[in-house]
Amino acid sequence: MALYLHDWLLYQLEYDNSLKWSSAESALTRGVGTCQAYESAYSKLLTAVGIINSETRDTYDGHTWNAVKLDGKWYQVDCTWDDTSDNFYGDLDQRHLYFCITDELMAIAHKGHAKIYTADGYATRLTSLKDNYFVHNGKADEWAAKYADRIQQHFDAKENKFSIDADNQSFPPSISGIQNGIVAFAMNLREWKTTNAKADLAANSIVAMQSGYKWISRFDFYATWKEPASYTIRYHGSDAAPAVARTTRVVVGTPTATLTSSALGFSCGPMAFAGWKAHRDCDDAWFVIDAAGNGRWAKLDGGALSEGRSFYRYVDGGKVSGTAPSGRVDFYATWIENKEYA
């Protein structure tokens, strides 16, 4: 509803360059008004439908706009600056550039707002772009996707910090800075990974003035690499035997060969090795086969397996990859009568 009222108001209104008409009444009856008229009219419309809102008055820049509370969060909305017929910047819809943005992004367009939202007692603080127009309609993710291959190259190189020039270098900072802030938010929602590794990515939009009227737009990225889930396999010569010193570390998702009973020096007289029973410590469960032949982890019931289940036996030196999410797995050697000695 906040978006509908925003769009409806923009279709009714034109900016009053004479600066004569500045009330909600002039906006709604005459169809003209200053920024105060835009703010007041939008406030009345929002209040009429039960949407909490507040005025953001920038006395430093002589401007005013609305703060709107949606889904429990405050957003900044500048109907005046959205009211344009310009379409100079590719697929960027300029009539929604200032709809539901953060305080930081609004301060790019209105410099005085930086002093307002950082002051003690400021009541409508926002840092999220969850309900931003371009985030909601998927455009932000579409823009972010255009950088994916370039980001991935740095990820594959396992870089912790890197920068990428923005594609909208030719846009003025008041446009590119806001657009790229929205794109950075979409980038941070994506999952980034490379072979056997994932990372939390923090993307920041940077617009910095150079000499004269020149500026640069870029994204700075900071990657925090996550350690892959892993576990340790310990080996026992029997159910009652203690674990030996040699172990196998398994990274979840990476097939890893287990040690063999002969390499570990295990034997049981004339008995023949019959495979490894597996127990994991994270939930005190054994890997079993059910009546339908499906493998699963299950706890013992009164010290025994439930009816229809049997212990799965891993082959000697076989490969494992996803036996446990973390912690430790104990392999217990099992033995059967060796028919060669029968």
Automatic annotation (TrEMBL):
Pfam families: Transglut_core. Keywords: Hydrolase, Protease. One of its GO terms (biological process) is proteolysis. GO terms for molecular function: peptidase activity. Residues 2-79 form the Transglutaminase-like domain. This is Uncharacterized protein involved in cytokinesis, contains TGc (Transglutaminase/protease-like) domain.
